[in-house]
Amino acid sequence: MWKQIPGLRQISQRTISTASRRQLGNRVPEKQKLFQEDNGIPVYLKGGVMDSLLYRLTMGLTAFGTAYVVYELLVASMPKKQK
């Protein structure tokens, strides 16, 4: 099969060999220091600005959803006026 498509074997070998050369550094110790640091910040906000935005979005959606459910329950509990 490889003799039919000579360039395919070279491409597959090149992709595999270049992928193994890129070694990512181990950043786990850095993250452990960040999250274990005792600075009064809750662990769910220690990731930075993105964690803060996600937290605020989640809390906003939760508050909106709760208010909407209470509103719908109030509307459902009121009898409709008969004409």
Radius of gyration: 28 Å
Largest sheet: none
Helix content: 55-70%
Count of helical stretches: 3
Shape: flat
- Order of helical and strand elements: HHH
Report the uncertain regions. Answer: none
Let me know the number of strands: 0
Calculate the mean pLDDT score and round it: 85
Query: Roughly how many Å apart are the termini?
Result: 82 Å
How much of the sequence lies in strands comes to under 5%
Give the class from helix and strand content and strand pairing: mainly alpha
Summarize the structure.
The protein is mainly α and 83 residues long. It has helices spanning 6-21, 28-36, 49-77. The relative contact order is 0.05.
Describe the structure.
By secondary structure, this protein is mainly alpha-helical. 65% of the residues lie in helices and 0% in strands. The protein contains three helices and no strands. The mean pLDDT is 85. Belongs to the cytochrome c oxidase VIIa family. Keywords: Acetylation, Membrane, Mitochondrion, Mitochondrion inner membrane, Oxidoreductase, Transmembrane, Transmembrane helix.
Based on the model shown, name its key terms.
mainly alpha; single chain; 3 helices; 83 residues; flat
How would you summarize the topology of this molecule?
Layout: H1 6-21, H2 28-36, H3 49-77
